[in-house]
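Practice problem: predict the structure.
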Amino acid sequence: MDSIGTPSLPCFDLLKSPKPGTQEWEILCQSVRAAMEEHGCILVKYDPITEEERKDTVAAMQTLFDLPAETKCKNASLSPYFTYLAPNETVPYYETMSVMNACLPEKAQAFTELMWPNGNEKFW
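Answer:
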């Protein structure tokens, strides 16, 4: 009988990633895609993110997803990819929220004000 070892996921260190457009970049992209297709997820290492920043991010996301459903539903969009998707009978443990152009400060601030009209300095 074969023994079952500890499962391992492919890990990619993006701090050391090659320059986009190079042959090395294309190889990395192909490797990430193959790993995602085979495993369904990967581990990504990016050292500049401190443990404190990671914990703060997780806490902020918890605060967001703890909001009432009525509040989260305010994040509506005509695009199915940039809206709130609540758990339902088909996928009862899946909940997602996307924000279009969230990397733009004015979009991130507008989203924060939509979710917390009285403000939330820690989220923004």
